[in-house]
Write a structure and sequence with these properties.
The chain contains seven helices and seven strands.
Length: 196
């Protein structure tokens, strides 16, 4: 089943070389984590970091890589109650290795180290002739691309504070001030279970 229908995608002509280059660049961030396993789980949490686990309060208290323990505890609850695995969509995946991201999560109390299984690829717009245009595609497109490559996924939720990640019926929007809250986790769990 393809989830592409949820987002209208722009025309992207990407040569095999460009696609392989994109995968190689992302694999350098992906390959360092020894716990990454092939993704066979059927419930996926597409997770942003800033505005979800990093909040205004945690930024003031500990700097740009300090996560809010309350938000991380809520993420633990979501993972434990749904059995879902996590795919990182955050811009952190561009700046940091997956080891660093998971380490920062664990330092804030995350208990599901082995539940972080992948990152989305960073996609760029391209002209019909294959010339890559500088700006990145919206996260929703990157998520749809990931879903296209993992057709066995049965349910997913996108947790992000930015609307460019929105996929209708699968989106939980957080706020940078409060991050991931108990009510948003309940909403995400309902989405993963196929409810409204």
């Amino acid at each position: 089943m393809s989830f592409v229908q949820h987002v209208s995608r722009p025309l992207v002509n990407e040569t095999l070389g460009q696609r392989m280059s994109r995968h190689v660049m992302n694999d350098q961030h992906r390959c360092h984590l020894d716990c990454v396993q092939p993704v066979h789980e059927r419930a996926i949490i597409f997770l942003d970091i800033d505005g979800v686990l990093v909040t205004q309060d945690s930024l003031r208290a500990g700097g740009s890589v300090s996560m809010d323990r309350r938000c991380v505890a809520e993420l633990n609850r979501l993972v434990e109650t749904t059995g879902a695995v996590i795919v990182i969509t955050s811009s952190w995946r561009i700046l940091h290795s997956i080891d660093f991201i998971v380490g920062a999560m664990c330092a804030a109390g995350f208990k599901g180290k082995r539940r972080v299984v992948d990152i989305t690829d960073r996609l760029h717009f391209a002209t019909p002739s294959g010339v890559v245009i500088g700006c990145s595609m919206p996260r929703a497109h990157e998520i749809c691309e990931w879903l296209d490559e993992h057709p066995w996924v049965e349910s997913f939720v996108v947790i992000d504070d930015d609307r460019d990640a929105e996929i209708s019926g699968h989106f939980v929007r957080t706020d940078f001030e409060t991050g991931l809250t108990a009510s948003l986790v309940d909403q995400a769990a309902r989405i993963l279970r196929g409810g409204p």
